[in-house]
Write a structure and sequence with these properties.
Blueprint lengths: L1 H4 L24 H17 L4 E6 L1 H10 L5 E7 L6 E2 L5 E2 L13 E6 L9 H7 L5 E6 L10 H16 L4
Parallel strand pairs: 1-2, 2-5, 5-6
Antiparallel strand pairs: 3-4
Helix pairs in contact: 2-3
Length: about 170
């Protein structure tokens, strides 16, 4: 959020349905895809600027599904993208399918900690290796899933990529 805002882009940060104080119930990723699309529609109506999607963990997985083929979106940023099944509150593991990114030509940045338990070494690299170019994967050394103690490095990575790929192209 801060990285994108530092370029003057308006940022909309929200909780998915049923999270925190938000209304509604968790919809296992399906309703949340629609939430992202509604958020993009609102951003586009309020701010006539290029749209960039950035999401973290579940939000990255859901947001990528919602935005990968949206012509309004100039770039995709996924932080802490889960590459292995993730335990959920219901007791069932969430398994994500990113097959759609094999044909996605939108510039993509993937940032994960080198100690991310949901993106173990080798797993995320293999997954991202199947995605279409352009793409970039950056591992933050000693970072965990939440980038604890490494938020500065994560932000600098995002800022550098946005400066090169998005701002440089405007």
């Amino acid at each position: 959020m801060k990285a994108l805002n530092s370029f003057g882009f308006p940022v909309l940060r929200f909780n998915f349905r049923g999270t925190g104080l938000s209304e509604g119930e968790h919809a296992h990723g399906n309703g949340e895809v629609e939430d992202v699309r509604v958020a993009l529609d609102w951003l586009e109506s309020e701010f006539p600027l290029p749209l960039i999607f950035a999401g973290f963990s579940f939000g990255a997985a859901v947001g990528l599904r919602a935005t990968y083929n949206d012509e309004r979106v100039r770039a995709l940023i996924a932080l802490g993208l889960p590459a292995v099944p993730v335990p959920s509150d219901s007791g069932e593991a969430r398994v994500y399918d990113f097959e759609f990114l094999r044909a996605c030509l939108t510039p993509k940045l993937f940032v994960s900690g080198s100690r991310d338990q949901f993106a173990p070494p080798g797993k995320l690299e293999a997954l991202v290796g199947t995605f279409a170019e352009p793409k970039k994967l950056v591992r933050i050394e000693a970072g965990d899933h939440f980038f604890e103690g490494r938020l500065r490095e994560m932000r600098e990575t995002v800022e550098a990529w946005v400066r090169e790929v998005v701002v440089g192209g405007l």
